[in-house]
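Possible regression after last week's pipeline update?

I re-ran a chain I had predicted before the update to compare outputs. Posting the input and the new output here so someone can diff against the archived version. Not blocking, just want to make sure nothing changed silently.
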Amino acid sequence: MGLESIGQASIRELVKLVNDIEHQTGETYVRMEMGVPGLPAPEVGINAEIEALKAGVAAKYPMLDGLPILKREIANFCKNFMDIDVKPESCLATVGSMQGAMATFMVANRTYKNRSGTLFIDPGFPVQKKQLQVLGQRYGSFDVYNHRGAKLRNALEGHLKEGNYSSILYSNPNNPSWICFTDEELRIVAELGDKYDVIVIEDLAYFGMDFRQNYGQPGQPPYQPTVAKYTDNYVFLISSSKAFSYAGQRIGSLVISDHLFNREFADLEPWYNSRQYGYASVFGALYALSSGVSHSAQYGLAAMLKAANEGQLNFVEDVSVYGARAKRMKQLFIQNGFHIVYDKDDTMPLADGFYFTFSYPGMTGKELVENLIYFGISAIALETTGSERTEGLRACVSQVSDSQFVDLETRLQNFNAQFAQHHVETAAI
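New output (post-update):
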């Protein structure tokens, strides 16, 4: 494939590599490299999309900002599951959270002409940095693991006081470490965002999937934690890919606070012929990127959100299988000489969820990726996510079925049998 280093390959490069090996060998890998849903999409969404197609929406252009019914259900979803009030006008349909992030970078990072960048509270999703590179915008980052709780303030302010950034981005729950920010930490992010007039982008790709709490009951606490409790300068990226297993339809939600949606920035006008943030997002960024979102997919997402809002679809319960799967997989890795890299969530034990991280004594992350490939196991190096823990890998549990646990255990045993003695000999030298 012409890769300089398999260990530094991107997610999609590893996907292609493993696909090719499986095709040529006939062997099935234990695939943990890509975060894709491993569950069927809810029928309520599929049926709504089918009915919309039969009604003829495929022949009609959708509105740039989304169907009115979808915008209403997004706003209701924010109220029911986050306890946040936002108008439907401020809720936009996007071609997945990826497009939501791209559109946000295009607008948020042009609000002040003397700034052009995003500060990532890492580790995080590598492709978002690629988006900034494509746009010619700057970014900075720091690994939050050693700066939890009150220590986050100094770490974050140390970057923001330089005056280079227009936005802050983090995921909650976090991809790849699966740590979850506390209310204290969200308040700190909000306060410093307001102090330095920086827009906070909250990536909610794994909405409600901290299974230590039950965030799946509409209109009842506990609610998905959010920075929006403490600031009006926020943007949500809400994915339908994981929580609703609707990845193939490429649809998500971009929610902009009402305050920010109507806020004006003089430096936006040369780019978008408007000073208003919301107008620039819709008629500037989203118009230029795709002129709207697949018409039928919007009906599908609207139906799923409506079912969730009315308590007919418990999406959190549906995806809780990932937590049980992660718990079992972690045990297999630990029993065979591996260590969990991000093992604490501040002072609490880490939740079991969509991802976990692991390492093997004596190997860098890049070496571990390359060595595991030979044993039919694929994962990505944490180094590619902005993590300072360069010895580790990220594992996604979604594609590993229960029927593969025997294969996984055998392959881990074989790996450990080969490399444990090598590690002992190397340490002795």
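Follow-up from reviewer: compared with the archived run. The longest strand covers residues 117-122. Marking as no regression found.
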